[in-house]
Amino acid sequence: MRNKLLNYLKNNKNKILLNSILIWIIFSFIIYPNVSLIKNTFVINGEVSLRSIDKLLSSERAMKSLFNSFILAISLAFTVNILGIFIVLITEYFDIKGSKILKLGYFTPMIYGGIILASGYKLIYGETGIVTTFLIKIFPNLSLNWFEGYLPVLFTMTFACTSNHLIFLTNAIRGMDYQIIEAARNMGAKDSKIVLKILIPILKPVLFALTILTFLTGLSAVSAPLILGGEDFQTINPMIIVLAKSRYSRDIAMLLSIILGIATIAILLFMNKLEKGKNYISVSKAKTVLKKQKIENKFINILVHTVSYLIFLIYIFPIIIVILFSFSDVNSIIAGRLDLSNLTIEHYKKLFTDISSFKPYIVSLLYSAVASIGVIIFTLIIAKLIHKKDTKLAKFYEYSCLIPWLLPATLIALGFMTTYDSPKFIIFNKVLVGTPIIMVLAYIVVKIPFSFRMLRAAFFSVETSLEEAAKSMGASTFYTFRKVVLPIILPSTLAIGALNFNALLMDYDLSVFLYHPLLEPLGIVIMKNTAVEADMSAKAMIYVYSVTLMIISSFVVYYVYGREGKRKNKR
Fold first, then answer.
1. How confident is the model at residue 439 (pLDDT cuts 50, 70, 90)?
2. Helices (H), strands (E): how many in the chain?
3. What is the pLDDT of residue 377?
4. How far is CA 271 from CA 91, 201, 211, in A?
5. Are 375 and 455 contacting, i.e. CB atoms less than 8 angstroms apart?
6. What are the CA-CA distances from residue 427 to residues 324, 326, 396 (Å)?
7. Beta-carbon neighbour count of residue 277 at 10 Å?
8. Would you tell me how many other CB atoms lie within 10 Å of the CB of residue 548?
């Protein structure tokens, strides 16, 4: 027995070593910080304590933030679905003039989101914004803070969260069978009845998934409530950020993050059960390509066209203003006045010649690049190890990689911050708080679920016979992976890495907890410069940061989606 064990260890030492490293990474940076956070919240001096619950219940601000988060999440579930369904119908189902141009405008949140979008809205509609300056001339009694509170946050997030509808609903509509629509029209059904009785039921599975995503986005919102919510409308995550800064209130912040995590898991389970209990209309396998439908009623047709272009203007207006103001002088920005005769490139010169202005870019680029490469390597290894396997270890890897999907970013960040602020044996008695490595690790953790799911799907596109042929010719497992498997899944791998890089480049949710004071990323710098007391020269740089980030995001989006569209057309 002993000899068999020794032979097994000898023959499989590389495999054992690799699995040991992976298990250590998962336990140290995915499981242990979250378990430690729960322990630090409810165990004080070795005894179970509910003091944090008492403090939370007695805190009016904290309780109000909980209420506000659910109000925002419920509201967004309605407004985003309504707007998302409408813009998909007018770009894919109805025959609307200029639909391709409209779609480009509707896709802008993909290159202009998060902290960038919220700060852009603040600079346009805020106290010194061009819109506020214009409105004050018409309505002198209008409050300078008119664009603060629940409605501005809801407005901003509604227009910011429709990208998923454009991607997934578009694919669902394109996959429909036109014969169903044609049969309904032949029976005299009107457009409204076809949409409500045929289209919506067919799209229900996708709409359920999008509703879950939208609800969770509203529940864990950070940027929009933090920048546009004002004092009267703060949600859970902005409140966690505030409370975590003080040791006295950090336990309330930890409890709020745990509540947010529990709510997220409960909602996912509830919606999943609800979705399984529904029956959906099936469509034929031999589909007829959908033809765009003309709106026969002239008044409705004009109304739909008008609303479509109005929504288009709402989408592109912030981007146009941000681009123009990035070339404006400081005096024009202070006055909230757009003067095309005083355009300048001084701010862009400053970005590339002033190290203090360019440094946040370098920092964010490095953080995002290292984290994107790290998460791709980690998930590639795991996806390969568990591909077409049903062992206990494979299930452990799979479920562990999905854990961060169930947890808000603030909970993950607080777990890191409260666990690794002192030496821990599990990481060789090192302290991670206050070092750049902790933010890279957090970035990697939050992107593991998405990367893992996408890469695992990519592995199923590899023919098993190719690997078997390579192995039969004496190729090692690593050589087979490097020469056979990797080239096939490389386009998907690069696309996933690009999307991760794009998202992390504008991150604020994690960065605000974990960034190194001397290495401030763009999200932190932009947030600081949106404050009322910020220097106007610094505020002017927000426009420049926004424009350059939009350019980078546009290249990433084109690489991932534009090139994919071209490949499909060639087929």
1. very high
2. 31, 2
3. 93
4. 28, 17, 9
5. no
6. 49, 45, 21
7. 6
8. 16
CB 470 within 8 A of CB 406: no
The β-bridge partners of 293 are 94
Q: 433: left (phi > 0), else alpha (psi -120 to 50), else beta?
A: beta
Confidence of residue 475 (pLDDT cuts 50, 70, 90): confident
- Report the alpha-carbon distance of residue 351 to residue 349 in Å, rounded: 5
Beta bridge partners of 430: 424
List, in order of start, the domains of the chain with CATH numbers.
Answer: 66-325 (1.10.3720.10)
pLDDT at 285: 45
pLDDT digits (tens, 9 = 90+) for 487-508: 888 888 888 888 889 889 888 8
pTM of structure? 0.82
Q: What is the mean pLDDT of the chain?
A: 82
Q: Give the number of other Cβ atoms within 10 Å of residue 248's Cβ.
A: 8
Nearest CA to 52 out of 34, 31, 38 is that of 38
Q: How many C-beta atoms lie closer than 10 Å to residue 268's C-beta?
A: 15
Q: Between helices 60-88 and 298-325, what is the axis angle to 10°? A: 120
- Rounded Cα distance, 31 and 500, in Å: 22
The stretch 44-50 carries a mean pLDDT of 76
